[in-house]
């Protein structure tokens, strides 16, 4: 492992417990908006490594003041210039030029890092505002006309599509946990239009686009099951989001996802950006217990960023979940990675944490059947509950152009639909999120349409499990017209 990471054996030994067994769990009295724990040394991969100077370069620095030479040897210059370019500049410069060059980097370095008294350590809020919590304050039922608890049907017509009000999968709505309990709801689909955690905006419109576009409701031809008939599904509305603060928003998302899960319903969260994975999985762990939930994370990106200025964005949720002990690293399974990262050092970090990653390189070598069989085996090793976090950019941009960080070379819909259907049929699902749908980045409507078909595949899989059908079940009527024995035994 040290060959990959460059870490000392002591650094690896410090996290041996994480590889061998449970991570230490830190019960979160604090929340995402409060300062995070100090990053453990083995996680601080942004810290510089000492720079070894070639003999000829060191000789050229003979007349340079010691503080400047020590600055070079500290390795921090690697943040601003590649070492080969640095060495070349020193070899070609005279003493005055070299001194000025190092001084310029020192001045830049002094600006980059935090300095107490100069830089704000937090973003202040106006606590005097009379509307400080109005964005997430829930209306009391006493303000509304009295009604019996239970789902509310918003369709106006008996048949057809589009009458009444648009909802996820054409489902009735529920507003309270009492509605979920009274309706014995199996699945509650909830929108979380968080849009502050991604670099390219528009995930705010993901829930709206998926409600307005068809594909989530109706018959699944593979199983010949209509999830709307087999399951009690509701649209649980949208979770309130403070679009000026990811940190404030995710705390409330965690409360609301937990509210659904505590009733026994499966929460399906429609995002919104992938920052949501942190509160979603944390909520599942709150309800089912830390260490009792595994995660299969579909994404072209690894999302374990750390050492960034903001404690949470769409590239850091996995690190937050693992570092706070909601899920063990060994119970985090990543599928579909193919972006420019991770680098070798980050792959080393992931291995040291016990994470299981499955890149598109692995898929190309072994094929989806073998890779998913391996991923599923890993997800079941230590836990019974599974959370599926599905970033739509795991699909190829040909199928998901409307997402903030598309990466070519991804899944096709023909691959993704059976994967999601079978995962949901084979596992006790703690919850699902479908995130990073940004419809305004799509000149067609295929992003929302395909996302809804994935949602339908999930619902069909949950219905298959409820009916006791075996994973991979295909209805014989849709498999074969049955009028001959062309494939052998008549279906």
From TrEMBL:
Keyword Metal-binding: yes
Pfam families, alphabetized: Arginase
Xref: InterPro entries: Ureohydrolase, Ureohydrolase_dom_sf, Ureohydrolase_Mn_BS
Keyword annotations from UniProtKB, A to Z: Hydrolase, Metal-binding
Matches recorded under CDD domains: Agmatinase-like
Domain of life: Bacteria
Family indicated by similarity: Belongs to the arginase family. Agmatinase subfamily.
Name of the protein this chain belongs to: Arginase
């Amino acid at each position: 492992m040290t060959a990959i990471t460059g870490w000392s054996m002591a650094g690896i030994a410090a996290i041996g417990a994480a590889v061998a067994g449970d991570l230490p769990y830190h019960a979160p009295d604090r929340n995402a908006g409060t300062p995070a724990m100090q990053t453990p040394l083995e996680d601080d991969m942004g810290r510089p490594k000492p720079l070894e100077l070639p003999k000829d370069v060191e000789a050229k620095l003979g007349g340079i003041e010691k503080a400047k030479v020590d600055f070079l040897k500290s390795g921090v210059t690697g943040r601003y210039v590649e070492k080969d370019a640095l060495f070349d500049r020193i070899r070609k410069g005279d003493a005055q030029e070299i001194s000025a060059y190092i001084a310029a980097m020192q001045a830049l370095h002094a600006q980059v890092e935090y300095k107490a008294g100069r830089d704000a350590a937090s973003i202040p809020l106006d606590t005097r505002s009379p509307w400080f919590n109005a964005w997430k304050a829930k209306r009391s039922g006493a303000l509304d006309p009295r009604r019996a608890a239970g789902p509310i049907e918003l369709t106006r017509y008996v048949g057809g599509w589009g009458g009444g009000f648009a909802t996820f999968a054409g489902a009735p709505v529920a507003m309270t946990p009492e509605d979920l309990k009274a309706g014995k709801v199996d699945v509650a689909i909830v929108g979380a239009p968080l849009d502050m955690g991604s670099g390219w905006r528009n995930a705010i419109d993901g829930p709206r686009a998926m409600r307005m576009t068809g594909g989530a409701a109706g018959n699944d031809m593979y199983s010949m099951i209509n999830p709307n008939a087999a399951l009690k599904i509701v649209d649980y509305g949208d979770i309130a989001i403070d679009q000026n603060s990811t940190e404030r928003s995710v705390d409330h998302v965690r409360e609301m996802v937990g509210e659904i899960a505590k009733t026994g319903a499966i929460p399906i969260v429609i995002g919104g950006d992938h920052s949501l994975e942190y509160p979603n999985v944390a909520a599942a762990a709150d309800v089912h217990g830390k260490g009792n939930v595994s995660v299969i994370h579909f994404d072209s990106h690894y999302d374990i960023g750390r050492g960034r200025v903001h404690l949470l964005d769409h590239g850091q949720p996995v690190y937050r979940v693992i570092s706070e002990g909601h899920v063990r690293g060994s119970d985090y399974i990543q599928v579909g990675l193919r972006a420019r990262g991770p680098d070798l050092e980050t792959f080393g970090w992931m291995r040291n944490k016990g994470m299981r990653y499955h890149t598109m390189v692995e898929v190309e070598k072994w094929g989806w059947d073998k890779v998913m069989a391996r991923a599923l085996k890993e997800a079941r090793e230590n836990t019974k509950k599974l959370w599926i976090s599905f970033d739509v950019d795991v699909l190829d941009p040909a199928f998901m152009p409307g997402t903030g960080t598309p990466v070519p070379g991804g899944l096709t819909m023909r691959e993704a639909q059976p994967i999601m259907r079978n995962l949901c049929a084979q596992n006790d699902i703690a919850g699902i999120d479908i995130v990073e749908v940004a419809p305004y980045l799509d000149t067609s409507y295929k992003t929302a349409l395909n996302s809804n078909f994935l949602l339908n595949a999930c619902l069909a899989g949950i219905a298959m499990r409820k009916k006791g059908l075996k994973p991979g079940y295909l209805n014989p009527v849709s498999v074969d017209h049955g009028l001959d024995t062309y494939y052998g035994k008549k279906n």
